[in-house]
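Illustration 12: DUF4998 domain-containing protein.
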Amino acid sequence: MNIQYIKKMVRVLLPICVLAFCLSCSKWDEFKEYIDEGEITYVGKPDSVRILSGNERVKIRAILKPDPKISEVRVFWNDGKDSVGVPLDAAMKESRVFEYVLPMPEGIVSLALVTYDELGNRSVVVPVVGRSFGSRYQNGLNNRLIGNAVLNNGQAVIDWLEMDLSAGPFATEIKYKSTTGQEKVVRVPLASMQTIVTDIQETAKTVDYRTLFLPQSTSIDTFATTYRTIGLARDVTAQYLKNTAVPIETTQRSDRWGIPAHWQTNLAVRNFKDANGHYFGGVDYWFNGPFLAMEAGWSADNMASITNGKIYQQVNLPAGFYTFEMDIPDCTAGGEFYTVAAEGDGLPNGSDVGGALAFLKTNTVGTHKLSFTLAQSTTVSLGFVGTLPNKGAGDGTFWRITAVRLKQTLLVE
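Figure caption equivalent — predicted structure in token form:
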């Protein structure tokens, strides 16, 4: 029985052993073939690969492995259909920093980097994705807005408005004629809210400015808006107006109330009657005055209601763009107070201010600005119209001004 068992096992195991031997011979032959052809040699791959965006171009930056065999970096794009080989110069080999600028249309950029040696051995592929910017980005850029630009005492003072940062603005450039007669450009950080130009020509009427952008903080190209020309406003208050700030001069006074010098006032404004039966109004000496004012009320038999009270000055102004400013420290909120610029002599009533050159309801505390344009030399009345009811002994309506200013921007052809 044992002999039969052994024969049976031989018949089973022999084919298996033959098959195993054949397979082992095959693998050995393959290995010998591999040895005969030589072992595959890889070159050190690029490391820390980055794409820096530009204007229809990108800069590729990578760190090279300390492999002396590396002789070239090849950049592939368009799914490998296009490529460019960049031989390493001595500086790249010494610094081991690879940099190359590649023209690319605006949009997402997908590249692959491979290093080679002189024998054609290569590294593994290193993919990298970035972006290029161009006309689409450029066309969406807006210039920074200016709140105020004034030329005063030989200095241009420009007040900037805040700007959205999402598009990458970082600075503004101002171009102007300096006192030497030469054109000068200064760069202002976006964080600056006011710029003072101290060497601008006294006769300057305008300055040019543009805003600079980096679409990404590492971008290699700066984008810019086109230059915009703005007129410089001049403070011409002293040239055209008189008696414009506290302490306001008066021609007549009775205790708290007075009549302002150089300002025209109508009878409605002069609503305080003194013991002699004389009327005063237009200037209030209380509360750190004297300042321009209208007030009614607090008394049942005095300080009568004011209906279309008017305080103004008449001036002859040349063609230009004007801003009439006033500072209101205190007033009855919501009252019928208007600041008006009207052509000719005198101001319209409150119900007719829509026909004036310009008007503004100024019934809140703060600095208010009224702007208007004159195409030619014009006689203009600048001032205030108010309707203030007398609410009896326990209440009143009032309005005060501490200063007015007139600024002129010459029209530029």
